[in-house]
Specification:
This protein is an alpha/beta fold and 421 residues long. The strands form six sheets. Strands 1, 2, 3, 4, 5, 6 and 21 form a seven-stranded mixed beta sheet that branches. The chain has two domains: 199 residues, 3-Layer(bba) Sandwich (FAD/NAD(P)-binding domain); 209 residues, no CATH class. α1 crosses α9. The radius of gyration is 23 Å and the shape is globular. The protein has nine helices and 21 strands. It starts with a strand and ends with a helix.
Length: 421
């Protein structure tokens, strides 16, 4: 065992882990950041070729950095952001150990310290620390329904983290299951690649890419939408709402809706329920899902209009945006309750069903009765244990990059207070 006792160990060197490390170094707290792969690993290896971040570059900065991107209003690629993370760590000389997988975190018996057991470049080691920050993210394990095993082995099945481009798939049509950001963006990418696309939808919100002269993210920041505190939420369904449909294609992206995908040739289906091997069983709710997205977009635009009026701001009138126009009848939506893969020449399925967090290495009582991590504003009930970078950790913005600076500063203050310095 490493003989020294560290003030803090941080698990994960993504944007959250690097951000808290910046503050810990500034506070002169001895610490290490343990990264399973390389810095930016998931950005390099779990994104498709045309992927870009959904938020403009100016909102993707970490503590201590001014805008580094040539176009502050543009959208950077996954590899560009990964390189930014690597450069950030190097510039501030953060104590990151790469290829260091955390195997287990345990309490030291009779003490408030922690043992952290790791596999560092394949060699077993362990560390001792007074406090620990879990910043390993909530997107570690692919979430795919169990009935995938029933689907014919003739069908190529990929999760969004494994999809790269249309040309890498066999000839034939493609079924995308899931209509949140990743699903709709991959459907658009496949259509651009001249592929026939079926997309199985669910209730997912939509926002326009631009509205009244600004990127939608600008308005959501300015209006305080992202500042809703977790403790203020009265409707638990808000926590389950998926990220809204939006496109990153082009220099500054554009609105992406199910009606736009339909006009480009996609077949819009209801939610996938099951499969018997060759036939996908569907709910006949595609039109309902389209109207849900339409209503959400209208609600967001009303909120922005109210904010502009109350703040007495000048803003141009709404732009023409056919892709954001609501479609009450949604007659193009399929109400079919089944989809035969063979008859429709579907040779590939892309599962855009998201991820779940993997915290199995925490050999500690950190979960509540619902299987969720138990904490308040990221501060665990276990003395000296903290979480960072999770959705709704403290606020609505906690799960996205633009929320990390505030959360990391808050957590650093908690750690400093606990350390007694």
């Amino acid at each position: 065992m490493n003989a020294s006792i560290l003030d803090v160990i941080v698990v994960g060197a993504g944007h959250a882990g690097l951000s808290i490390s910046y503050h810990l170094k500034d506070l002169h707290l001895s610490h290490l950041v343990l990264e399973k792969g390389r810095i930016g690993d998931t950005w390099y290896n779990q994104r498709w070729d045309s992927f870009k971040l959904n938020t403009p570059n100016k909102w993707n900065l970490l503590p201590g950095r001014e805008n580094m991107f040539p176009d502050s209003e543009g959208l950077c690629s996954a590899s560009e952001f990964a390189a930014f993370l690597e450069g950030y760590s190097a510039k501030f000389q953060l104590p990151v150990i790469e290829n260091c997988e955390v195997v287990s975190v345990e309490c030291v018996p009779g003490s408030k310290k922690f043992f952290v057991y790791v596999a560092e470049n394949g060699t077993a080691k362990n560390y001792l620390c007074k406090q620990i920050v879990v910043a390993s993210g909530a997107q570690n394990l692919k979430r795919i329904p169990s009935f995938v095993r029933n689907i014919s082995t003739d069908i190529v099945q990929l999760h969004t983290s494994e999809y790269r481009n249309a040309s890498a798939l066999p000839d034939g049509a493609i079924l995308v299951i899931g209509s949140a950001q990743s699903g709709t963006q991959i459907a658009e990418d496949l259509i651009v690649g001249d592929r026939k696309v079926f997309i199985s939808t669910s209730q997912v919100p939509r926002v326009p890419r631009r509205y009244r002269g600004k990127d939608i993210v600008d308005w959501l920041v300015m209006s305080g939408f992202y500042d809703l505190q977790t403790i203020e939420v009265t409707d638990p369904l808000i926590f389950k709402m998926k990220q809204p449909q939006i496109s990153t294609v082009g220099l500054q992206g554009h609105t992406l809706s199910l009606q736009a995908l339909s006009r480009d040739g996609a077949v819009i289906l209801g939610k996938t329920e099951n499969t018997d091997g060759v036939t996908i069983i569907l709910q006949p709710n595609a039109a309902t899902n389209i109207r849900f997205a339409d209503e959400f977009s209208k609600k967001m635009k009303r909120m922005i209009d109210d904010y502009i009026q109350k703040s007495q701001l000048y803003a141009p009138p709404p732009e023409e945006d056919p892709d954001d126009d609501p479609v009450e009848a949604a007659s193009f939506a399929s109400d079919s309750t089944s989809l035969n893969l063979k008859k429709n020449n579907i040779t590939s399925i892309i599962w855009a069903t998201g991820f779940v967090g993997d915290f199995s290495y925490l050999k500690l009582p950190v979960f509540n009765g619902n299987g969720m991590l138990s904490h308040k504003n990221g501060v665990s009930e276990i003395d000296g244990l903290y979480f960072l970078g999770l959705p709704w950790l403290r606020k609505r913005k906690s799960g996205i990059i633009l929320g990390i600076e505030e959360d990391a500063r808050f957590m650093a203050n908690q750690i400093l207070e606990h350390s007694g310095n």
